[in-house]
Amino acid sequence: MEYPLDDILYVEMAFGRFYDIGAADSGGVTRLGYTKEEDEMHAVFAELGREMGMEIHSDPVGNTFVSNGGGRGDHYLIGSHLDSVVDGGRYDGVAGILAGLLTMRWARRDGMNLPVRTVAFRCEESSNFGVSTLGSSLVTKGGVGADVAAREGRDGRTLGEIFAERGYSLKPDRISGVREYLEVHIEQGRVLEEYRQRIGIVTTIAGPRRFNLYIQGRAEHSGATPMVMRSDALCAAAELILEIEKIGMAESVRHSVATVGVIENRPNALNVIPGEVKLQVDTRGIETASLDEMERRIKQAGKSICGRRGAGFIKEKTGETRPVAMDHKMQDKLARVAHSLNISHRRITSGAGHDAMQLAEICDAAMLFIPCRDGVSHNKKEFAHMESICDGARVIYKYLQEECA
Ligand SMILES: [Zn+2]
Question: How many angstroms separate the CA atoms of 196 and 174, rounded?
Answer without folding.
Answer: 40
